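Hey,

Quick one before I head out. I ran the complex with magnesium ion overnight. Inputs first:
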Amino acid sequence: EKRVYFFGGGQAEGSAKMKDLLGGKGANLAEMTSLGIPVPPGFTITAKMCEQYYKNGRKNSDDLVEEVEEHLHRLESTVGKKLGDKDSPLLVSVRSGAAVSMPGMMDTILNLGLNDEAVIGLQKSTNNERLAWDSYRRFINMFGNVVMGIPHEEFEKEMDKVKYKKNVEEDVDLDANDLKELVKLYKALYKKQTHEDFPQDPLDQLWKAINAVFGSWNNPKAIKYRKINDIKDLLGTAVSVVAMVFGNFGDDSGTGVCFSRDPSTGEKMFYGEYLMNAQGEDVVAGIRTPKRITTLQDQDPKLFQTLVDVKDRLEKHYRDMQDMEFTIQEGKLYLLQTRNAKRTGAAAIKVAVDMVSEGVISKEEALTRVTPLQLEQVFHPAIHPATKKKVKAIAKGLNASPGAATGQIVFSADEAEEWHAEGKKVLLVRPETSPEDIGGMDVAEGILTSTGGMTSHAAVVARGMGKPCIAGCKEAQIVNKKMVIKGQEFKEGDWITLDGASGEVFEGKLELKEPEIKGELTTFLSWADEVRIHSYRASKGLKGFGVRTNADTSTDAQRARDFGAEGIGLCRTEHMFFEEEKIKIFREMIVAADDEARKKALDKLLPLQQKDFVGIFEVMNGFPVTIRLLDPPLHEFVPKDDDQIKELAKIAGISAQALKNKIRSLHEENPMLGHRGVRLGITFPEIYRMQAEAIMRAACEAALKGVQVYPEIMIPLVGHIRELEIMRGHVEEVAKKVLQETKAKIDYKIGTMIEVPRATLVADELAHHADFFSFGTNDLTQMTYGFSRDDVGSFVPQYIQEGILEDDPFAKLDQEGIGQLIELGIGKGRDTNKYLKIGICGEHGGEPSSVDFCYRAGMNYVSCSPFRVPVARLSAAQSVL
Ligand code: ADP
Ligand code: MG
Ligand code: MG
């Protein structure tokens, strides 16, 4: 077994393909080395050794110790320097890196190998006293923090003392003597906090650092990050030990991060930031305000060109946008990291579409480059244009992550989590954020920081989360739970609005506007449709996999059409009844004393329903519309307060007391399993008959206007064949009557919802009387699991926390259990009728993993809420691919 992989001198044992073992960082360092890109030499300890470290009770095997030391010697001879040498010491960084990048979550230590002797050696060999002591103080700080857990602020305090004494603001203003002094203070601090002297043996330092990096795999923030990002099944972190190069060598040295395109918009432009005479994370940590990468062109055109060439090469090689770290030592460029850049949803789409037109990737590949989650981000709101015209920004920062958000100010991540738990919308407002804050960032609507640049922690994390973020808003002074902007004070709980796209901050709660589909997005989604419909059809000789929507009104239906829905998979008729006028007539119908009174009310309802349906058919011209007959228990519609009861009693011509009795008689102990769905149809066939008539009349009316209509009448909650048989009889009778009367020709279907577990077991029988099945997976999940949909909040979160459940089964279809019933139902249904049309209309229809399941199970379409239609289009295409 090989435990350690070397890279250096133009050759590497590893490669980019070995991310699982070497981590993204180690694998790409190896790859870049082989490509001949200037990378300091080093070696990578595999992630498997991290796994073993934990298995052995936080110890390393003798074999590993031996192999690491061998590689260390190889590194020493490659560089021609020795660790801890008192004349010319080798210094290394010890870096974490997992297979999936987790920026800032784990630890890295720089300048390892320095001690009281080696620091003199470094001074001599580089002829740079300041560099030597600057590196030593950084090392003690990082080692003390990462290995021994001394809070970083404690070191900051010592630094501030020295700065104060010297009366300077920035660390670059400290000279070698100041730094020497600082090293003394740091060592004293180290001793005070750990009761040990700062370790002088470089090998001892090395192993402590390696173990600390292994240990950082399981620090709380890393665990939380993996949870939030659903990262599972990794071995652990690899550890790369890399020879140091010095960005803090002087004014012709520096360090920076850059992207081959703009990670926020996807625009093809070189993008990045750097700082001269700085090391490691100074840029990201926002210690000084970094410079734009384009400034480097004026400063050192040749070096800039080298960097441009490298980024072009890397992007071409990896065939994707790169995020790179580099260091300049005495005018020479070194690359320290490259990876596929994290990006916003908008950037993901633009880069994918652009790379197709540049001929770098195929359309199919482009479709795999955007995750459904990223696509969802593009549908983030903006401040309503009409509102925006009227208001003036109170401050402007960097537009670090697009989208608009409005919420109440909180000043700490913990508070963000607390307020969020109380159901409040919060904006996290901080001087800067750090990896400890990700829990709070995750629940915040948006993030505002007063310091830091476009590559600061807040900016990077917010972009990944698809959240609006304004960084480096200098006008905002944030101290002691207060934010002051130009003299105006904002307290915790005050409302503000952020526009992450422009970087503007607004006072108060502004109206937001939902986004629309255009430009690259249209192109991208059309490719998704092409794959989903055409290539699939062509290759399998089958009909495409459709994406429909759940919509109850013509407005929702229109929005869904704009988002690309190909019909309605679920139109819930009862939602129409909740309008002011209709609910009154509907109530009259429910409480009717006799059949005649009920008929009178139904006659009034019919034209109203018919009108609604006409509107929907018009919008869905040419596409099928599945309409579900009345589903919820009747008592949901009855009035609750006395005034309404009095009014209704008057209309119904009965006493208030009689009405109250009637209402009481409708009460059910367990309404979700009670008198609802087809059971209402059986007991009050005239209700279903009225609805069927309204649908058919609407269809005829629309058809006469030239609209192509395909009504699909759906009977809910069927569990027994007789239920369906009887209701189908009623609906058919009404439909034939209407068609005879109007002489219209309508291609209509009658089908059923499959949502009672029994229905899946007798699906072969049901298929004799159904032209289509639609799986109502909300109820099917509720009834199969026996989890009340409305009460899962009280126990499912704990189930998830304890790992009993991986996901909420109402959000992600439970493929293992409920999935079996669905497959059974489909199989049995198609045994009876090979061409049975089958879809899903539960909330799962827009959730990517569930969409994939539906496709594999052989459904003809999924149906979901309008806003999820584009996500379903992409998920469906990705399933087909
Ligand atoms: P992270 O994963 O948090 O980015 P890294 O291991 O990439 O951590 O390192 C942190 C910082 O230190 C980065 O800016 C990186 O470029 C810099 N760095 C790491 N190793 C070296 C080295 N050998 N020489 C100079 N800078 C280094
Ligand atoms: Mg890095
Ligand atoms: Mg249902």
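The first strand starts at residue 4 and ends at 8.

Talk tomorrow,
K.
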